């Protein structure tokens, strides 16, 4: 069973998505990722976007560790329902409405953020985490990254979780890789706006 590792809601169990259509981030990878993000002072007061959220574990961990706003985006009905349950649990633990869930495809939600000219300043994210499904092609990932690059704060961080067998993402104009790390079968890529 997955859990919130640290922060104000640390130790609380997270509901998992039934079936094998999603692959949760292991606690080992989560601990390493969030240790790194905290050392870079990325989380405190951050606005976080968790794409292809699955159970919402990465976004919810961000909320527990001090993010001020977290948006979970998930298309699959079962996973979106689990995201909502986990969001409700962490919001209750934090005694604040920090985590919200958007059900829909990542690209359609990103398109709505980008096209919302009056709302765009409110849609500027400090941290974007994405764990796309393995069948997502590298070309599709590049298109998604291009959309993400339009809604980032100047000093934002983008984290992509992929299979260790996947190639380095093709970075669109506006984003560049500054670090990466392998943890067994998982490869994390870190990028920032340029």
What would you say this structure looks like, in words?
There is one protein chain. With 194 residues, this protein is an alpha/beta fold. Helices cover 31% and strands 26% of the residues. The protein is built from five helices and seven strands. It has helices spanning 27-39, 57-64, 77-94, 106-115, 138-148, and strands spanning 47-51, 69-74, 99-103, 125-130, 152-163, 175-183, 186-193. Strands 3-2-1-4-5-7-6 form a seven-stranded mixed sheet. A hairpin with a 2-residue loop joins strand 6 and strand 7. The longest helix is centred in the middle third of the chain and has 18 residues, at 77-94.
Quick overview:
The protein is α/β, with parallel strands linked by helices.
Which helices and strands, and how do they pair?
Elements (H helix, E strand, L loop, with lengths): L26 H13 L7 E5 L5 H8 L4 E6 L2 H18 L4 E5 L2 H10 L9 E6 L7 H11 L3 E12 L11 E9 L2 E8 L1
Parallel strand pairs: 1-2, 1-4, 2-3, 4-5
Antiparallel strand pairs: 5-7, 6-7
Helix pairs in contact: 2-3
């Amino acid at each position: 069973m997955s859990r919130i590792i640290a922060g104000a809601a640390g130790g609380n169990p997270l509901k998992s998505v039934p079936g094998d259509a999603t692959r949760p981030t292991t606690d080992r990878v989560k601990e390493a990722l969030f240790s790194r993000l905290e050392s870079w002072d990325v989380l405190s007061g951050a606005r976080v976007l968790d794409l292809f959220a699955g159970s919402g574990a990465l976004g919810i961990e961000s909320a527990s560790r001090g993010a001020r706003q977290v948006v979970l985006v998930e298309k699959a009905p079962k996973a979106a329902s689990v995201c909502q349950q986990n969001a409700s649990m962490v919001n209750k633990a934090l005694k604040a409405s920090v985590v919200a869930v958007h059900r829909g495809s990542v690209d359609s939600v990103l398109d709505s953020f980008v096209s919302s000219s009056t709302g765009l300043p409110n849609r500027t994210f400090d941290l974007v985490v994405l764990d796309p499904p393995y069948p997502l092609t590298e070309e599709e990932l590049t298109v998604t990254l291009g959309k993400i690059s339009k809604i980032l704060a100047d000093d934002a961080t983008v984290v992509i979780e992929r299979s260790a067998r996947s190639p380095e993402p093709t970075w669109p104009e506006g984003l560049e890789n500054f670090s990466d790390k392998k943890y067994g079968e998982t490869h994390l890529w870190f990028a920032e706006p340029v």
